[in-house]
């Protein structure tokens, strides 16, 4: 699949927030308990800050935005809650990887993880993320793509993948 990844700009904040809320609604309709807090504006301000800090990306094809994700070197309050304060390896934290439902199950998620690993190789020790522990499909997806389960905190599994071999 052909796609382009670009840093989001401030003018795209509302479009990204709407995209994330649409994805959260789709998940809710599928009975998946993930991101329901987004439906009520739970992270709107954090999403806007991530865009301002040049940590949010959008994924485009000819039809427009098909995915988004945030990748940050700085721990959010949530990261500190899930991972703790220390990070001796200088990690990157992946948040809100959302794919338009009509583009799911065609390898786009895999391709985006590969894009991240290729473009941020050796810029940090690890790529870290968390996901709801009882979301079996998502947990399987991350394990299948080389992420190692390293713990669980507050109902969220902690995954990491080494970015720099050696």
Explain what this protein looks like in three dimensions.
The protein is α+β, with helices and mostly antiparallel strands and 166 residues long. The chain has a single domain (4-162), classed as Gcn5-related N-acetyltransferase (GNAT) (Aminopeptidase, 3-Layer(aba) Sandwich). Helices cover 33% and strands 28% of the residues. The chain has five helices and seven strands, in the order βααββαβαβαββ. The protein has helices spanning 13-29, 44-52, 77-83, 108-119, 136-144, and strands at 4-7, 56-61, 64-72, 92-99, 126-132, 148-153, 156-162. The chain has a seven-stranded mixed sheet, with helices on both faces. Strand 4, helix 4 (108-119) and strand 5 form a beta-alpha-beta unit. The radius of gyration is 15 Å and the shape is globular. The mean pLDDT is 92.
